[in-house]
Amino acid sequence: MSFLLPCPNCGPRPVEEFSYSGEVTERPKERPTLRELATYIYFRRNVAGVQREWWFHRLGCELWFQAERDTRTNDVLLTELVEPTVRQES
Amino acid sequence: MRLPPKEGQRIDRERPVTFSFDGRRVEGFEGDTIGSALYAAGQRVFSRSFKYHRPRGLYCCSGSCPNCMMEVDDVPNVRVCAEPVRGGAEVRPQNVFGSLDRDLLSAVDKFGGPFTPVGFYYRTMIRPRWAWPYYESFLRRVAGLGHVHKHGRRTGRYDVEHRRTDVLVVGGGPSGQEAARRYAGEGHQVVLVDENPYLEIDEGDFEVMTPARALGIWEGGLVPVDAGRILYRFRAEHIVVATGAIEQPLVFPGNDLVGVMLPDAVRRLVDDWAIKPGERAVVLTADEGGREAAERLRRAGVELAGVFDLRRERIREIAARGRKGRVRSVELDGFHLKCDLLVMSGGRQPAYSLLAQAGARIEYDDERGVFSPIEIPDGVEAVGAAAGDGISTAIPAATYNGAAGKDKCFVCICEDVTDKDLKRAIAEGFDSIELAKRYTTVTMGPCQGRFCQVPSIRVYGRETESDLGRIGTTTARPPWTPVELGLLAGRTHEPAQRTSIHHRHAELGAKMMWTGTWRRPHSYGDPEAEVQAVHGAVGIIDVSTLGKLIVTGPEAAEFLERLYPNRFGDMKIGRIRYTVLGTDAGRIMDDGTIARLDDETFYVTTTSTGAGAVLEWFEWWNAVWSMDVEIVNVTGALAAVNVAGPRARELMGRLTDLDVSNEALAYLDAKHGRVAGIPSLILRIGFVGELGYELHFASPYGEYLWDTVLRRGEHLGIRPFGLEPQRILRLEKMHILVGQDTDSESNALEANMPWIVKFDKDDFVGKWALEHVRERGPRELLVGFEMEDGRVPPEGAQVVLQERRPAGRVTSARWSRELNKVIGMAWVPAEFAKDGTVFYVTVNGGFEKASVHLRPFFDPDGERLRS
Questions:
Q1: Is residue B602 classed exposed, middle or buried when 0-12, 13-18 and 19+ CB atoms within 10 A define those classes?
Q2: Does one domain contain both B429 and B444?
């Protein structure tokens, strides 16, 4: 791996500066069944193609952001900050 | 003996240079390479081959083939044909048993044939199994390349430099230079790299880097360039590949004999170093290269016994014959010609490797009989011979003349692969070129396919009667050229973190140890005495390595409630809670204490090695939740010490005006105040099991505070204590160490801390998984134990049940002088987690009795802690 990843703060930087946290998953909204929980924790789509994933600029600005990357070619289609989600009031 | 001086020669005859070769003095001139000086001095055998230990001599003379690899000043695998002479250098041959001229293992060549076919090491020497280490060490010594000295020192400093440029031109031949000049003229920043130290460049407005080898084109257009001691990591908008073409050998029996060489070797020997390569030469050529070499030899006074242009003359059988590995004659369709030099030229092949690495497709060009690059990706450009320009037609049929019953016929001289080996591989079913490559190792040697890729495909095509275009080529992978490991490793960085009190520990004679990247005192010489000081009087330990995070904002309490299994919303200002951080799988990540400093501010401590991961974790969840919280890492900004022992309060009274009575500053209270005049955060916690105060304060005051505490505590019997005594103390209290007593599978319930988990909270990270553990019930539990006969089991020792079934493991074990017992912690099956249950532990191969102990060994009710 030696591609460049554009950090939304710092611009294109060598990928070694970042830590990778896998594809974006969705945390269950309410108590999952055991199977749903296992799926959320362990199962990934692992696509050969474009996937949305988490990156952290560990040796830089310490920002978490999401990227869309083609897992076959390591072409990065876009990187962006995560939109603040509307939170459920508990 | 050198040829008369002529324009263009590199050597300076006024400046002789002397070096030693295999214990002998050799003289050359400034401008020589070690290889040319040796050749001029009469040396003809330069190495012994990889497998058969056949004598080998100069072959390509351009730093590409394996034939001249030697050890120079303890550096193995140096290609001496391209290594400039250095006065006083010590040069030794490698892969030789005996001497270059008489190698004991050349017997393999004569008698080993039937026993050492291709892939023999996969099939023989397998049994008996126990003997493999002997086979392996033998094979390691006889096969292969140079010797790495086991206790060798590093030979120099290596560095890595990142560079960017608009245009990077790889190769400084005419087309490379032309491209560089063109782009520079358009106003681009251009860097040209070439491996030739003598490259002549006409003026141009671009940077030239020589000798420098581009190692390959990696993803993202990364081109690492080996410039000897510096590795330049180039990122270029545009890469121009001008790597030229590579002369190809002919494949016939005896084509590796000493004295068989390529036209370029002749050119360098004659033109650059004024050396007469031989006395009587035969030239075999499938292109113009051989004709030029013949002309050059004629001018150098070499007798030409014959020049054969294989494009016109059909010769069905070619075989070189030699004596003692040196060519003596060549046989052409039964006709013998005496010679001591045999120049062969199988045509030129575009050096497409870099282009293929960048993603270009390689296609067989039927008309010219070469492989050329097509579909070159954006951002990369091929110019000159590398693109196939100016490559004359070679006749493939003429380049392979395998003849049965004659000498070995080499397809690959790096790995000693013959045409027979390839045929055998095909017969055994390795019927794709990629599989055959892996089986025979053809193209995997030091030349990286430069001289064997095309010949192997041709032999393959002939044997399988298939079209060369259909066979394809093997995948080109970087690096394209061998590179010193030191260069890839760069400068050695062993990051070490030191606390601001580090030098005091050194002065006190502390034995230091690593915890992650931190350097921490193991002890100050007597761990047991240090333990006793904490139990009997007072001790001080540097805990600056703790991770320290400030979490602040209107939603700080809710943020922590969501992250941790405990409750924080109900915490009073100035109180502290111990807590365990978990993942959604319920696994323990880290532990520490959290103090509430005000309504919106919490002070979080993490383990010494966990600070980075916890910060990353916090930031990630906050990216997901986007709550109104700020997280600040103050690990390095703040130092911390823990003052613990029954006399700790007395000592604190001497250090601060703050009321430190048990009423004013109770167990698990946090308060700001001045200690020894330094503004500090005082946390009353007791990891080591005695009355204790943890002081957090600005790092620069570290030594001052440390000194003051030790001075004021002197008459109370204060002692600094290290990590080892701390581990004994916490074990007496059964306080866990995350990562020591827990692993990546442990959860808070089974680690026996159910009181931390508040299932009545709406949600927290890991809640669902922990609910599941609660429902199914614990399978194994982390418990304390004591050994019956007082032997200390090693950490990681097996827990064994009555019927000798392994059922768990010991995570910590120490002898405690305070208790006069061997105590520890272990994972045992849940049904055994009852006070007094007996189990066995493996110690030195035997079984030792141990019994479960559920409550802390020392001060089980925490009276001393709370006193």
A1: buried
A2: yes
User: Domain check: are B280 and B339 in the same one?
Assistant: yes
Are B444 and B464 within one domain? yes
**B842 and B701 inside one domain:** no
Report the pLDDT averaged over residues B258-283: 95
Q: Which chain B residues are closer than 8 Å to A65 by Cβ? A: 623
pLDDT at B123: 64
Among B162, B219, B759, B761, the residue to mutate for chain A (most A Cβ within 10 A): B219
Question: Rounded to an integer, what distance in angstroms lies between the CA atom of residue B509 and that of residue B235?
Answer: 49
Distance in angstroms (rounded) separating the CA atoms of residues B37 and B58:
12
pLDDT of residue B288: 87
Of B223, B221, B195, which Cα lies nearest the Cα of B209?
A: B195
For residues B538 and B644, membership in a common domain is answered with yes
One-letter identity of residue B816: S
**Domain end marker among B401, B421, B442:** B401
- Of the candidates B84, B22, B95, B33, the residue with the CA atom closest to the CA atom of residue B58: B33
In this structure, is residue B149 part of a structural domain?
Answer: no
Contacts of B763 in chain A (CB under 8 A): 90
Rounded to the nearest angstrom, the minimum Cα separation between A6 and chain B is 12
How far is B370 from B458, CA to CA, in rounded Å? 10
Please indicate, yes or no, if residue B147 is contained in any of the structural domains. Answer: no
Same domain for B301 and B264: yes
Residue B719, domain CATH: 3.30.1360.120
pLDDT digits (tens, 9 = 90+) for B60-70: 998 899 999 99
Interface of A with B in 2-41 (CB under 8 A): 2-4, 14-15, 19, 21, 27-28, 31-32, 34, 37, 40-41
Is pLDDT at B695 greater than 50 in this prediction?
yes
Domain of B628 in residue numbering reads as 546-635+764-775
Residue with tokens 């505490």: B709
* Opening angle at CA B659, ends B654 and B663, nearest 5: 130
- Extract the tokens encoding B766: 């890991």
Instruction: Tell me how many domains chain B contains.
Output: 7
Tokens of B376: 């070159």
Backbone angles phi, psi at B533, to 5 degrees: -65, -40
The amino acid at B475: T
- Tell me which chain A residues have a C-beta less than 8 angstroms from the C-beta of B772: 34, 37
Q: Are B723 and B520 in contact (CB under 8 A)?
A: yes
Give Rg (Cα) of chain B: 37
The radius of gyration computed from the CA coordinates of chain A, to the nearest angstrom, equals 15
- Measured between alpha carbons, how far is residue B394 from residues B309, B347, B348, B503, B732 in Å? 11, 5, 8, 72, 82
What tens digit of pLDDT does each residue of B545-601 get?
999 999 999 999 999 999 999 999 999 999 999 999 999 999 999 999 999 999 999
d(CA B865, CA B668): 10
CB nearest to A64's CB, from B218, B222, B620: B620
What domains does chain A contain, in order, with CATH numbers?
A: 4-27+34-80 (3.30.2270.10)
The pLDDT of residue A88 is 46
Are B38 and B68 found together in one domain? yes
Conformational region of residue B777, where left means phi above 0, alpha means psi within -120 to 50, and beta covers everything else: left
- Omega cis (within 30) before B720: no
pLDDT category of residue B400 using cuts at 50, 70 and 90: confident
Q: What percent of chain B has pLDDT over 90?
A: 70
Looking at the structure, tell me whether residues B369 and B282 fall in a common domain: no
Q: Which residue, among B851, B750, B747, B834, has the nearest Cα to B799 in the 3D structure?
A: B851
SS3 B358: helix
- Compute the distance between CA of residue B141 and CA of residue B97 in angstroms, rounded to an integer: 10
- Separation between Cα atoms, residue B571 and residue B549, nearest integer Å: 18
Cα–Cα nearest to B227, from B241, B242, B211, B243 = B211
Tokens of B810: 């010991």
Cβ contacts of residue B143 below 8 Å, gap of 6+?
A: B50, B51
